[in-house]
Amino acid sequence: MANIKDYKIATLGSHSALQILKGARDEGFSTICICQKDRVPTYKSFGVADEIIEIEDIKDFFKLEERLLKENVIIIPHGSFVEYLGHENLKKMKIMYYGTKEILQWESDRNQERIWLEKAGLRMPNIIPTPEEIDKPVIIKFHGAGGGKDYFIANNTDEFYEGMHEYKHEKKYVIQEYIVGVPIYSHFFYSAVHDELEIMGFDKRYESNADSIGRISAHDQMMTSIRTSYTICGNIPIVIRESLLPQMLEMGQKVVEESKKITNKGMLGPFCLEAIIDPNLNFYVFEISARIVAGTNPYVHGSPYTWLKYDVPMSTGRRIARDIKDAIKGNCLEKVLD
């Protein structure tokens, strides 16, 4: 019978690696952090990795494949995997991979992502088909997991082309209706082992310079040429109204069920629905992240929601490790690996 001591858990030293490694160790796994030379001191200082493998460049990750295969390593993906290694390269990877690689194709292409969410029956902001049809405030978003980098607002066609002048290299983007409301990022976890969906927590992102420009008076904003940026700098924990939880759980369940129709195995493990809540408490979901998000990092010791369910500090990183452990003990590891 398989034992968790027969496996090691590894991830790239970036994004949410600290909680992934800490959570894996808390569940009894040996841990490996794969990171670039300049990040090694950081991960050494926190002491959450039993082994640190230094690489010159993130692309060198694939050179380690044979070594990691021999050590029976299970890779935990996060946003940096998707952004820097690309879903096409990850699909070819032979190392044991927690999650469903196929779902990355739907997540990384905003057009396919929208098809998925619309089929799940979620309310979404409108998409403006062409720049010439912009007649309201819109936000232009580029494809991929770039952490909000280079998004910009336009109020009309001229402003769109003015903004795009700075991003001539970007060929894939969507023009999305800008919904005014409270941004809420909802963290879920779906266990294929137990066929159960859990709410892990919520956060709000701190974006530069969108969240700091309000410190400048309206007059000074009008007089300056500051372009609003939505690059994520950090995350702020949120507890939402309890009466909204049934609606959140229903949305998460619909997304999971639809994922089983569009891919062979469906989505499993952690994911995040990124939404705006308007004054009438309507949710407009504008994006999904089909893996652990950095917004779970404030909850390394667990969130108010995981404390209700678990008697130990349960971060999303630890929940991943426990899912893998349950699969090993239940002799059904194939349910959680790709």
Characterization of the model:
This protein has one domain (4-122, 181-208, 235-335): D-amino Acid Aminotransferase, Chain A, domain 1. 31% of the residues lie in helices and 25% in strands. The chain is built from twelve helices and 13 strands. The chain has a five-stranded parallel beta sheet. A five-stranded antiparallel beta sheet has the order 11-10-9-12-13. Helix 1 links the parallel strand 1 (8-12) and strand 2 (30-36). The longest helix has 18 residues, at 245-262. It starts with 7 loop residues before the first strand and ends in a 9-residue tail after the last helix. The mean pLDDT is 90.
Give the strand tally. 13
Could you give me the name of the CATH homologous superfamily? ATP-grasp fold, B domain
Largest sheet: 5 strands, parallel
Biggest sheet, spatial arrangement of strands: 3-2-1-4-5
Query: How many domains, as an integer?
Result: 1
Query: What's the helix count?
Result: 12
What's the architecture in CATH terms?
2-Layer Sandwich
Morphology call: globular
Query: Please, what is the oligomeric state?
Result: single chain
Helix percent reads 25-40%
CATH class: Alpha Beta
> In percent terms, what proportion of residues is strand?
15-25%
> What's the CATH topology name?
D-amino Acid Aminotransferase, Chain A, domain 1
Q: What structural class should be given to the helix and strand makeup?
A: alpha/beta
Stretches with pLDDT under 50, minimum 5 residues: none
Task: For this entry, give a set of tags.
5-stranded antiparallel beta sheet, 5-stranded parallel beta sheet, about 350 residues, alpha/beta, D-amino Acid Aminotransferase, Chain A, domain 1, 12 helices
